[in-house]
Amino acid sequence: MNKLYIVIPAYNEEENIETTAREWYDVVYKINEQSRVAVINDGSKDSTFTILQELQKELPQLEAVTKPNGGHGATVLFGYRYALKNGADYVL
Fold first, then answer.
1. Residue ranges making up the domain that contains 42
2. Is the distance from CB of 92 to CB of 6 less than 8 angstroms?
3. Average per-residue pLDDT for the chain
């Protein structure tokens, strides 16, 4: 069975991250149990990562990952590498 990872970079998105994570979660949930939404927190200074950690308790196919701030491009690449390291067949 194919494993899809949807990678979402996030920086200071506390106002939007829950809605975004839930909308993309619905997509992977419908695909299969192996697929994941990986939100990569890029060193946010607000509560983005805390919100994601709470959502993980409810949404088992959500993976919240944090890293020091490095900018959008570096965070996307970090997310792609993370997905491949975790067995992704496809990364979006």
1. 4-91
2. yes
3. 97
